[in-house]
Design a protein that fits this description.
The longest helix has 30 residues. This protein has four helices and no strands. The chain has one domain. With 91 residues, the chain is an all-alpha fold. The two termini are 24 Å apart. InterPro entries: NrtS-like (IPR047700).
């Protein structure tokens, strides 16, 4: 069933499935975790720093999103890069 879905889907859908598959690669996930660790801290300082300095409360929802979004972007980009490298090498 899954193979049928990929074969009958448009090319962009096939590429998307392959990108998600490559994004789950251990190397890609490791790099995405490193990126989101740094970028998430910086985004939290930018977005919530002034509020915290004024004695406000920390918004956990926004704090978590500041880590999740860079992780998703980095892992998707890494998966896309892996797919392009494999397509270029004919693998």
């Amino acid at each position: 069933m899954r193979r049928l879905l990929i074969v009958n889907s448009p090319q962009w859908a096939n590429d998307f499935v392959q990108i998600i598959r490559h994004a789950g690669n251990r190397r890609v996930l490791g790099f995405a975790l490193k990126v989101c660790s740094v970028v998430g801290v910086v985004l939290n300082l930018i977005n919530q720093g002034p509020q915290l300095l004024d004695g406000g409360s920390f918004s956990w929802w926004h704090g978590v999103l500041n880590f999740v979004v860079p992780f998703c972007v980095s892992s998707f980009s890494g998966g896309r890069n892996e797919l392009r490298n494999r397509q270029a090498s004919g693998y």
